[in-house]
Amino acid sequence: MNFRDLGVLAFIIVIVAMLVIPLPTWLLSFLIIINITLSLIVLLTAMNMKEALEFGIFPSIILILTLFRLGISISTTRAILSKGDAGDVIETFGEFVTGGNILVGLVIFLLLVIVNFIVITKGSERVAEVAARFTLDAMPGKQMSIDADLNAGLISEKEARERREKVAREADFYGAMDGATKFVKGDAIASIIMVFINLIFGLIIGMLQLDYSFADAANHFSKLTVGDGLVAQIPALLVSTATGIVVTRAASDGNLGQDIIGQLFSQAKLLYIAAGTIFLLGLFTTIPDWITIPIALLLALGAYLMSRKKEEDPEELLEMEEEQVTDTMKSPENVVNLLNVDPIEFEFGYGLIPLVDAQQGGDLLDRVVMIRRQLALELGLVIPVVRIRDNIQLQPNEYRIKIKGNEMARGELLLDHYLAMSPGDDDSIDGIDTIEPSFGLPAKWITEEVKEEAEMLGYTVVDPPSVVSTHLTEIIRANAHELLGRQETKQLIDHLRETHAILVDELTPTPLSIGEIQKVLAKLLKENVSIRNLPVIFETLADYAKLTSDTDVLTEYVRQALARQITRQYVQDGSKLKVITVPAKVEKMIADSIQQTEHGNFLAMDPQDSQMVLESIAKEVERVSYMEQTPIILCSPGIRMYLRQLTERYFPQIPILSYNELDANVEIQSVGVVTVE
User: Fold this and answer.
1) H-helix or E-strand containing 308?
2) In whole numbers, what is the pLDDT of the chain averaged over residues?
3) Which residues does residue 444 pair with via DSSP β-bridges, in sequence order?
4) Which terminus, N or C, of the chain has the lesser number of Cβ atoms within 10 Å?
5) 594: phi > 0 → left, psi -120 to 50 → alpha, else beta; which?
6) b/e map of 585-624 (b: 16 or more CB within 10 Å)?
7) Are 538 and 504 in contact (CB under 8 A)?
C-alpha cells in the first residue's frame, strides 16, 4: 500500500471522526477551506474532460465529498450550539457576504438552496436517470455493432475488446451516476434542516444557557447560521454544477470550453445578427447606449475577424495529401501490412451489396456472428474473423469464399429470387435452373409468386442470405483443420489451463510440443471430429505420449477415447448403425502394404490393388446412397488410418470408423462389403 492509498484512507477516517468527535474551531476553518478547494477542483476537472468516462471515479467522489461536507456541517453545528463560536471562516462569511444584514444573508442562503436543489440537482438527477436507462437499453445493440464490425474486418480483436469494455464501463458509470445524484439531493435537504436547527436551538441555548437577550441571541446565532449555511452551500453548488456538466456531457474531441467556443461562436452571420439586435435594443429602448453599443461592437468585431480567417488553398491541400500518401507508401510498416493474409475472406460483386448493408435490410454480418458461435459449439474451435469485402472484379451477383488467400468456393445469387430444391424428380415449377452451392444439388431460382406453390409441392425454399450462410458454414467446416494453427492451439491450451492446469502442465511442453498437439487436433477436425472435449483429448494424449510421439497413432488413441462422441455423431435416436464392412482379406492386403520407417509408418500399396479397393468402395457407396442411407465404412483399428489415407483423396466426406470407436451398446448392421477379386 503506497502513500496515496494511505492518504485516501486517512481522509475517510477523518470524515467519520468529524461526525462523532468535537473539533477545535481552527481545525474547522481549515477543513472548510479544504472542502471549498476540493469542490473547485472537481468542477474544473469536469469542465476539462472530453467524455464522461474520463472522470469515471466521479460517483465515488460525490459520495466522499458529500460525507465530508455533512461531517463539517455537523461539527460546525456542534460548535455553534455548544460554544456559540464556529471559527473565523464561518464568522467572516456571516459578516462579509451578508453585509451586516442578517435578512439579506438568509435570503441569499435560501436562493442558493433553491438554485442548487430545484434547478441543478433536480435536472441532473433526471438526466442521469434517463442516461442510465438509455445506456442499459442500448448495450445489446452496441455489442452487436461491435461484433458486426469485427466480422466485417473493420476492427481488430483488440479494438473489439476495448470497445466492449468501454460499453460496459459506460453502463456502470451512468448507473452509478443515477444513484450518486441522490447524494447531492439529500445533501441539499440536510443543509436546510441544519439551518433551522441552528436558528431555533441557537435562540434557545443563547437565552437559557448563555444568558443572552432575545435580540442578542437572534443576532449572534443568525449570523453564525447564515455563515455556516453559506460555507456549506457554496461547495455543494460547485459539486452540483460539476454533476450536471458530467451527466450532460457528450463525447467530443475537445473539452467544455473548446466545444462551447467552437460550436456557439462558429458562424459569423449569427454574430452579425446578434450585434444588430443588441444595437437596435439600445437605440429604440431606454437602455443606456453606453451598455448596448460596446457589446454590439464587440460582437461585430468578432464576426468580422471570423469571416476574415485565411481560407486554405486547395492546391496546397492537394500537395499535402499527395505528400502524406507518398510518406505512407514509403513507410516500412505499410509494406509489412501487405504481407498479411486473412484466414477467411468473403468477397462479393456490387450487386450483392444489399446482402451486407444493414441500412438496406442486409443481415449477413449478424449471420456470420451466429455461424462463428455455431461452429465453436460444434467443432470446439474459435473460428477466425471473416473478412467481408466487395470486389469489382467479380460479376455483380457473384461471390467467392477464400481460405488463407486461396479460393475454395464460388457461387451466384439472385437477390430477388428464392432457391428451391426439389424433393425428388419433380420439375413442375418454373424457374432458372442452377446448382445448390453447398451440396451440389440441382435447384431452381424462383420468384416470390411461385414460392408458395413450390412449398406446397414439397420443395425446400431458401432465401439468398441463407444460401450464402449455409455455403460459408460448410466451407469453414470442411476446412477447419487448416484454420487451426499453432497460435490457435496455444489459445486453446491457455483456455484449458484455467480449469485443468495440472493436465496441461503434464502434457506440454513435454512430452508433446504445441506443434504436435496441433497436428493431432487438426487430424481430428479433418475427419469432422469435434475437439470441444479438450480434457478427454489431453488425458488420452498424456497417457500415450510417453509410449509414442507419432501423431497419427496418438490421433487413433484419441478417437477411441472419444468413442461415445463419435457414435452419437453418426447414430441418431438410438437407431442402428448401418455400415459398409471391410473383410479380413482386404484388411490383410492393406496391413501387408504398411511400410515402417524411422519417420513413421506409411501405406505403400500396389497401384493395382489400391485401384481394386477404391473401385469396390465406390460401388458400395453408390449402392448405399441409392438406398438413401449415409455411407459409413467400418474396419479394424489397426488399418483404419491407412484406409483413411487410401480413400482421403477420392472419398474425403465418407467417414472411416474402427470397431474401437463405437460405443459398446450400439447395434451394427452391415449393408455392404468391400470385396476384392
Assistant:
1) none
2) 82
3) 420, 433
4) C
5) beta
6) ebbebbeebeeeeeeeeebebeeebbebbbebbeebbeeb
7) yes
The reported pLDDT for the residue numbered 3 is: 67
* Other beta carbons less than 10 A from residue 281's beta carbon: 14
pTM over the 0.70 mark: no
Contacts of 120 (CB under 8 A, 6+ apart): 237, 240, 241, 243, 244
Quickly state the pLDDT bin for 523 (edges 50, 70, 90): very high
Query: Cβ(611)–Cβ(601) under 8 Å?
Result: no
Q: Indicate the Cα dihedral angle 434, 436, 437, 439, nearest 10°.
A: -140
The proportion of the chain whose per-residue pLDDT surpasses 70, expressed as a percent, equals 90
Among 261, 184, 238, 248, smallest CA distance to 49 is for 248
Instruction: Please state, as a whole number, how many other Cβ atoms lie within 10 Å of the Cβ of residue 323.
Output: 10
pLDDT recorded at residue 244: 77
Residue 611: pLDDT band (50, 70, 90) is very high
Give the tens place of pLDDT for each residue, 403-456.
Answer: 998 999 999 999 889 999 887 766 778 889 899 998 888 899 999 888 988 888
Asked if 580 contacts 624 with a C-beta cutoff of 8 angstroms, the reply is yes
Could you give phi then psi for residue 489, rounded to 5 degrees?
-65, -40
Q: Amino acid letter at 575? A: S
Locate 270 and state its grid cell: 449569427
What's the grid cell of residue 23?
Answer: 473539533
All three cell numbers of 20, joined, read 462523532
Q: How far apart are CA 229 and CA 97, in angstroms?
A: 11
Tens of pLDDT, residue by residue over 259-288, are: 666 666 667 788 788 888 888 888 888 778
What 3-state class would DSSP assign to 348? Answer: strand
- Closest C-alpha among 90, 65, 64 to residue 76: 90
CA distance 34 to 250: 30
Beta-carbon count within 10 A of 322 CB: 10
Q: Can the peptide bond before residue 511 be classed as cis, meaning omega within 30 degrees of 0?
A: yes
CA proximity to 180, closest of 227, 228, 246 = 246
3-class DSSP assignment, residue 62? helix
291-304, pLDDT tens digit by residue? Answer: 888 888 888 888 78
Between strands 418-421 and 633-635, the pairing is unpaired
Most confident of 67-76, 189-198, 541-550: 541-550
Percent helix, strand and coil across the chain, each to the nearest 5:
65, 10, 25
Which DSSP string corresponds to 481-513? Answer: HHH--HHHHHHHHHHHHTT-HHHHHHHTTTTS-
Q: How large a percentage of the chain has pLDDT more than 90?
A: 30
Cβ atoms of residues 483 and 384 within 8 Å: yes
